[in-house]
Amino acid sequence: MTTEIKKVTKSDLNSVVLRSNLFQGSWNFERMQALGFMYSISPVIKRLYPDPNSQERKDAIKRHLEFFNTQPFVAAPVLGVTIAMEEERANGKPIDDAAINGIKVGLMGPLAGVGDPIYWGTARPVFAALGAGLALSGSILGPLLFFVLFNLVRLATRYYGVTYGYKKGLDVVQDMSGGLLQKLTEGASILGLFIMGALVQKWTSINVPLVVSTIQKQDGTTEITTVQSILDSLMPGLLPLLFTFACMWLLRNRVNALWIIVGFFVIGIFGAWTGILA
């Protein structure tokens, strides 16, 4: 008598990736992303426990309705690891509920700390800035570029995350503890700061047209010296740089970004009204 080996197929993994796009669809304050996690992994549960009335399937569904919450994109490797563990359990390996839930809980915290700065703090503002650059010139490609780039990164993360987690299994934990997450976070932060620094120089423009002196030359021409021309002779782009540092200082001191934007509107309107800014 031979025992049939239960194996998750490529189609099952693709279904998990597709369903993970609705990971946040049933978010709630009690168990947060638990329903989304269960909905995403359900093709695998059906594959490993084909009898809909079996106690194993009921236990698996109940197991994955426990509390879960992380950055939705980086939940993909957690899904992959969980699939690998469920597959081993379905084939007789002694893996209990606590082990599976322990891995999920142990990974969701560190991954959330990596996912938020990479996707919300780096990828989204950088892609939005690139798209806004085209939109300012009136091109429809601006919003399309942002939509395409961000979703390419999002979908690639989900696909390769699930595949990577499934192939690596519990070895993912060793990768995480080896400083991989810290390197990813630092790399994304450096890349984001580099690109945003270049965009600040390109987009931020402050002009102070206050006249300091007017000199009538012998050839009949007039030389007008403004505050802006003096600042530019000292360092081109000095005011935008100081403006950026002021924003960073306010944000680090936990000043609400909305109040900062409102403050800049007020300064801009007042400066234009008084003639200090142009």
UniProtKB/TrEMBL annotation:
Q: Keywords, A to Z?
A: Cell membrane, Membrane, Phosphotransferase system, Sugar transport, Transmembrane, Transmembrane helix, Transport
Compartments where found: Cell membrane
- Origin: domain of life: Bacteria
Entry-linked Pfam families: EIID-AGA (PF03613)
Q: Name one GO biological process term.
A: phosphoenolpyruvate-dependent sugar phosphotransferase system
Question: Which parts of the chain span the membrane according to its record?
Answer: 126-150, 257-277
This chain belongs to the protein called ManZ protein
Organism per entry: Mannheimia succiniciproducens (strain KCTC 0769BP / MBEL55E)
PANTHER family referenced in this protein's UniProt entry, alphabetically: N-ACETYLGALACTOSAMINE PERMEASE II COMPONENT-RELATED, N-ACETYLGALACTOSAMINE PERMEASE IID COMPONENT-RELATED
The topology of this chain with respect to the membrane is: Multi-pass membrane protein
GO CC annotations? plasma membrane
